[in-house]
Every structure is written in structure tokens, then in C-alpha cells.
Amino acid sequence: MTIALYVVLAIIGIIVLLALIAPKSYNVSRSIQINKPLEEVFNYIKYIKKHNDWSPWKKKDPNMTQEFEGNDGEVGFISRWKGNKDVGTGEQEITRIIENECMESQLRFFKPWKSQSNAFITVDVVDSDTTKVTWGFSGVNKPPSNIFFLFFNMDKTVGADFEDGLNDLKTILES
Question: What pLDDT score was predicted for residue 19?
């Protein structure tokens, strides 16, 4: 009985310790330069429906179902999706647009696990015909689920998807 109690307490202690040292937040972003003027690039990326043309997740499930609410390219627009295990189920809502600067949105995932992230796409002038696009998202890892992030590198995994998407965006806009 006493040994079992010590084992249970040790397991609880390990879980608490891991939750304390595990990352409490994440921030992933990638950038690319596109050989098009800033206004043209921003006018394309602020429309979430157009993200289907270059989204790495649309490639992972071309058969995912989507529905939309509101006016695309405006604050309050919501895109909902249901897909396979690679894309899950969730929604994205535009929360802020600063014309020719940034589009911010909230990502709400329902499956395979519940989470919420703040996403953004920014544009910066490199020169009159070149635009730097930065795409990213950030969020909070709540204990004890943050323990998972000791073994999962969000930056490496999602960053690779961002790089693929940005490369496709570049190809589309420069063609």
C-alpha cells in the first residue's frame, strides 16, 4: 500500500515538473519575397478563399468540406472546414485588417484536439516591385497538455508547411 502511494506521488510529481518546464507558448512564422508590388500581393492574400490556391493544408485534404460566413476580405469573415486527420476540423475568423500591412485572424481547432491560435499575414515593401510576406501564428500551451510540446517541435513541423505554402503563393503571384 505504501509503495503504491509513493509510486502515484512520484508520477504526479513528474507530471507537475514536466508541465512546469514545458513550453507555455508557441510562435511560428516564415517569410518569402515575392516579385510583385505590395498592393497587388496584399489584395490577393487578404481573401481567405484564395488561400485554398496555396494552402499546404488544402493539399493534404483536397476533399475537405468548407463553408463560409460573411464577406471575404473583411473583419468578421469566417471560414469553417472539416477534413481528414491531417487537417482536422476548425474555423478561421478575420479579426483585423490594416490595408496593405496585415491581415490577422483567429484559428479555432476542434479536432483532432481543441486549441486556439492567433494567425497573421504581413506585407512589407522591399522595393517598388518586391514584397516581403510573413505568415505565422502564435498561441498558448496550457498545462498539462503543454507536456506534449517537449516532444513535438511546432516550429519545425508547422514551419515546413508555411514554407511550402509561401512557395506556392510566390509561384501563383509571379506567374
Answer: 63
The backbone torsions φ and ψ at residue 121, rounded to the nearest 5 degrees and listed phi first, read -135, 125
Show the cell assigned to 172: 501563383
Burial of 162 (C-beta count, 10 Å sphere; 0-12/13-18/19+):
buried
The single residue listed with the C-alpha cell 498545462 is 143
Which grid cell is 86? 491531417
Torsion of CA 80, 68, 92, 174, to 10 degrees: 110
Which amino acid is residue 82, in one-letter code? K
Which among 39, 33, 29, 30 has a CA at the least distance from the CA of 126? 33
Phi first, then psi, for residue 114 (nearest 5°) are -80, 135
Grid cell of 106 as nine digits = 483567429
Model pTM score = 0.85
* Beta pairing class for 89-98 and 130-140: unpaired
